[in-house]
Specification:
It comes from Serratia fonticola. The chain is an alpha+beta fold. 34% of the residues lie in helices and 29% in strands. The chain is flat and about 35 Å long.
Length: 38
């Protein structure tokens, strides 16, 4: 399960969580999305 948290005004990702098998390996993808200002 994946949950992303967005800022309503700027529509930027401000956080997220991944729960499940190998979820820890995917956390880098959330970090990359935040750094890329998606």
């Amino acid at each position: 399960m994946t949950k992303l948290i967005f800022d309503k005004e700027t529509h930027r990702i401000i956080g997220g969580a991944i729960v499940g098998t190998n979820g820890g390996e995917l956390l880098g993808e959330i970090g990359l999305a935040i750094e890329m200002v998606l």
